[in-house]
């Protein structure tokens, strides 16, 4: 992940904009993107600071509050697919991606059993 640009450069850019210089000319002079100068100016007007916000961090999983429902559904119908589980969650008002469901199940150790009725390809002996 890229480090944020220094506060010194941000302050100088915002100062130049507040003195009446255009964001484009300030961006060109300091060698940064115009959008960065615009965002720094907006942040300064809104908060009085040009310091960057916290980067990264841990995001709490969306499906944690619905763990009991998910475990119950998997124990009731072990053949339930990820897309089926996603559809049932959507019916309850929980909009998540297929990947979010898969990651939740993986993190919780809830795995789907592979189909043991069909033999795996390559497991049969060749008749010669």
Automatic annotation (TrEMBL):
Highest taxon in the source lineage: Bacteria
Pfam families reported for this sequence: HTH_23
Protein name: Transposase
Organism (species): Bradyrhizobium nitroreducens
